[in-house]
Design goal:
It is a single chain. By secondary structure, this protein is α+β, with helices and mostly antiparallel strands. It has a single domain, classed as 3-Layer(aba) Sandwich (Aminopeptidase), CATH 3.40.630. The strands form two sheets. It has a seven-stranded mixed β-sheet with strand order 1-2-5-6-7-9-8, with helices on both faces. Strands 3-4 form a two-stranded antiparallel sheet.
Length: 250
Amino acid sequence: MNTHLLPNPASEEDIARYIEIRLSSLLRNPEAFSSSYKRESAFTLDQWRGRVNSVGGITLVASDPKSSVPTTSFPDELPMKMPQETNWMGTLKVLSPEMLSSLPGNFGYPPDIADAENAGEVEVWILVAMWVRPTCRGRGVGRDLVEKALEVVRDSKPTTNAASPMNESDPREIRNNRGGGPETQESPEIRRRERIILLQVEGDNLPARNLYEKAGFRTVPEFELGGQPTSAVETAAREQWMAFHIRYHE
């Protein structure tokens, strides 16, 4: 198995492979995403190119160079011809601070982390859109994708908050992840001492939680407005934030 970064810009062949696996994920596991197959199957080719080649968005692909599987047959006409077979087993998207800063609106990730980011103390990255084909599950694909994502973040240079004019990503796919507050005027390269990688997982999705915990993620305590902790029942019934912390200089 090979886990790699999709080149940016991606080839037309890779864009077709991305469209196929993305729409497959929305068709087969709609409960796992905030977007929908109906919405994204109507995207134009330019919209797909913009998503795949977005500035600050990193697409990770797990593939098997020794074998391939039949691709999904879709009921709708798509903007380009889909491959008949693929060796792509799963994908994961990494959203960098550069990309997050270009998205409109405020995204409600944990207040303490949002405050630290706004104060220039931390750099926030987010993992979204993880999916592994059903026929490829149980083979360590998800683990390898997460480990590759952590490696990418560790090895990345500190970024500024410059907005990206090319961003085509849908903020709803992040499920309101970004914190609000005033922008810091100080250089992130000077003040920031830590990177925090965030993701969200359903509280009752134990296999996914176990995967992330083994990789080093820890659940961020949930609080209702007013500072009251949520009940165990409420916590299990909704998505929870998990975080991975990286200290990258003193």
